[in-house]
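Researcher: Quick test of sequence recovery. Tokens follow.
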């Protein structure tokens, strides 16, 4: 670079070599292409869902989507409350399991465990997230349903929505714990020290100072877990007890089909997928409903975090 007198700088002297600028442009174009591909894939998924979902909405007899005998798509019955209520039951039961256990684990790891214990417990907790969902599905079917639900609720079916919900809850615990622990760890130590300086106990500091300060992150963790529970397929497909259809029944101790399990059952019929009427298109219609539900949950989570987030 040629030295110039003060006040006579040329902007070209600060741009670097042409080869370096070419590499920078190439990296920028590659990054843009990657972002564009992800947008195109998302648009393609939405288009595929909308195209077949609209066909379902145009072809279906809407009197068979509400108040009929149940979700029996290959016979032309598409009772939406059957799969919606089953999905809500499984999600609610899963959150009753995952939210308290995951939050308690996060509070212990963040506020009580020393570095040595944390190095041991956190990987062990995350191992649960690595267990295939199909394994948890069979665990729920062979252990949770007969030995837990069956012993507590008389008349419970050998496979039922409650067992599926507990299995999904176990699958979701690491997600709640991991996100919640990150939210608690982001709370500055000055708040803990100020609380301790006022004579507060560890329990009071954790529950009345740290947890409220991390409330937005904890709520986001629960909402993300709800989205995960709604979208779980294998556990509810195996342990829910309904093969490819479900009679209208709102009892969680009986078999049922969630929205994801209903999609899996329709898609698992090879040449029988066509069924009667818009059976195949019902798969995309339910998928579109799931997409809209999870999108709404993500928007609610983002709005809540933005509104209640505290920056330190």
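Model:
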């Amino acid at each position: 670079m040629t030295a110039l007198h003060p006040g006579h700088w040329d902007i070209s002297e600060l741009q670097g070599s042409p080869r370096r600028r070419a590499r920078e442009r190439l990296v920028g174009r590659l990054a843009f292409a990657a972002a564009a591909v992800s947008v195109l894939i998302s648009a393609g998924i939405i288009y595929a869902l909308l195209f077949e979902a609209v066909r379902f909405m145009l072809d279906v007899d809407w009197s068979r989507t509400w108040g009929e005998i149940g979700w029996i798509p290959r016979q032309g019955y598409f009772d939406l409350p059957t799969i919606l209520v089953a999905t809500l039951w499984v999600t609610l039961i899963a959150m009753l399991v995952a939210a308290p256990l995951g939050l308690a684990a996060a509070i212990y790891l963040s506020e009580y465990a020393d570095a040595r214990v944390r190095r041991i417990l956190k990987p062990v907790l995350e191992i649960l997230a690595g267990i295939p969902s199909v394994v948890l599905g069979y665990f729920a079917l062979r252990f949770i349903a007969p030995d837990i639900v069956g012993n507590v609720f008389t008349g419970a079916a050998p496979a039922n929505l409650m067992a599926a919900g507990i299995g999904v809850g176990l699958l979701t615990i690491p997600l709640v714990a991991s996100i919640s622990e990150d939210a608690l760890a982001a709370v500055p130590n000055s708040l803990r020290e100020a609380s301790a300086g006022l004579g507060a106990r560890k329990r009071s500091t954790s529950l009345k100072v740290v947890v409220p300060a991390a409330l937005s992150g904890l709520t986001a963790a629960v909402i993300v877990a709800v989205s995960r529970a709604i979208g779980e397929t294998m556990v509810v497909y195996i342990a829910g007890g309904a093969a490819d259809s479900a009679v209208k029944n709102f009892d969680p101790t009986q078999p049922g089909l969630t929205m994801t399990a209903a999609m899996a059952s329709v898609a698992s019929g090879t040449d029988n997928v066509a069924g009667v009427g818009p059976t195949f298109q019902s798969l995309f219609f339910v998928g579109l409903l799931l997409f809209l539900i999870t999108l709404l949950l993500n928007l609610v989570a983002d709005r809540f975090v933005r509104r209640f987030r505290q920056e330190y």
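The longest strand covers residues 70-72.
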